[in-house]
Amino acid sequence: MLTGFKKLKMTEMKSWDAIILGGGIIGLSLARELRRHGASVLIIERSEPGREASYAAAGMLAPWGGDLPPSLQSLAEISARMYPEFVAEVEDESGHKVDLRDQGAIVFFSDHEHSQLPEGAMPLAAEELGKLEPHISASDRAFRLEERSVDPRALAAASFQAARHHNVDVVSGSPVTQITRESSGLSVHTTHSHYPAAWVVNCCGAWAGEIKVQGTDSCNVPVHPVKGQMLSVVAPQATLQRVVRTPEVYLVPRSDGRILIGATVEEAGFDKRVDPADIRLLRQEATKFVPQLGEARMLEAWAGLRPSTPDDLPILSATETPGYFVATGHFRNGILLAPITAQLMGELVRGSQPELDISSFALARFQK
């Protein structure tokens, strides 16, 4: 449970340099970035910070994979390299550990991926694989990659505390109803109040498309939710040290002994219900690679909503409304891309030329 929400009453109303809509890892990271550059920042979260897609994610920091669009490759690699420093700062500012692991990954590539192996993929003979991960039963086409993983729940909680350390204000439980243009900037209206700012950044994930700017249709954000179900288990004995990725399932070990098993990809609207049949199937697929997981005790099953766009690329963009920006649509890569998104959007919002070219992620690409 996240604590430390600042309750802002109408009698205490003030204005901010920036309002971040959405308190997931993207919004929290951007809030920290802007605050560190001197901006006053308010986060408005419809439910509770860090409890939507960030809470449901697996946390694989894999800058290469079958579901990573080629045009995101460079951005993903840069963000993955930023992670050790990013986590060190969050841990220092929050006083909380995040469980960043660097043991790497064992990957079983599909036929398609096998013909386009990433640089650094090291093939593993059965004997080598047995030494690294003795509980993995499969051995065909196994490769080792130097990748990291992180616990997204711990990262989101620590990022929230780090933001509070930087005196970021937070309003929770207040869905945004609309944004209006005022003579002095923008005003964000919620079901309970309204909040003025010079800049507003839509980081609402799967809900980003529900945010409307009064008087214009040019700022509509074409994002929709894609459901993902997962589960976590604890085995009777240690079974995995490394992430295991296969075309059918992935396994992500945590330092506390949990192993995450995921994940489905479903067009189900905003339905977050868990289907026991889907969870059973995920577990069956996992035991094909690690049979000992058949004896593992299930801890939890859950579903999250990933924010997807029509071209599977994020939206990192200014809009036609001065002062209004969008940072969403990261689909399955929000945790991975959080550090670079915060840096680039921080530069864009402050009026600086982003260090990297993000023109291909502009909202305007959907308005042609």
Please give the largest β-sheet. Answer: 8 strands, mixed
Mean pLDDT: 92
Determine the number of helices (DSSP H or I, runs of at least 4 residues).
Answer: 8
Order of helices and strands: EHEHEHEHEHEEHEEEEEEEEHEEEH
State Rg: 21 Å
The fraction of residues in strands falls at: 25-35%
**Might you state the CATH topology name of the largest domain?**
FAD/NAD(P)-binding domain
Tell me what the CATH architecture of the largest domain is.
Answer: 3-Layer(bba) Sandwich
Query: Helical percent range?
Result: 25-40%
How many DSSP-defined strands? 18
Highest-level CATH class of the largest domain = Alpha Beta
Features:
eight-stranded mixed beta sheet; alpha/beta; 2 domains; D-Amino Acid Oxidase, Chain A, domain 2; FAD/NAD(P)-binding domain; 368 residues; 18 strands; disordered N terminus; 8 helices
Would you give an account of this structure?
The chain has helices spanning 25-36, 53-56, 73-94, 111-114, 126-132, 152-165, 276-289, 334-349; strands at 16-21, 41-45, 60-61, 105-108, 122-123, 142-145, 148-149, 169-172, 176-182, 185-190, 194-202, 224-234, 243-245, 250-253, 258-262, 297-308, 315-318, 324-328. By secondary structure, it is α/β, with parallel strands linked by helices. The relative contact order is 0.20. The protein has two domains: 10-55 and 154-222 and 311-366, FAD/NAD(P)-binding domain (3-Layer(bba) Sandwich); 105-146 and 224-308, D-Amino Acid Oxidase, Chain A, domain 2, CATH 3.30.9.10. Strands 1, 2, 8, 9, 10, 11, 17 and 18 form an eight-stranded mixed β-sheet that branches. Strands 5-6-4-13-14-15-12-16 form an eight-stranded mixed β-sheet. It has eight helices and 18 strands.
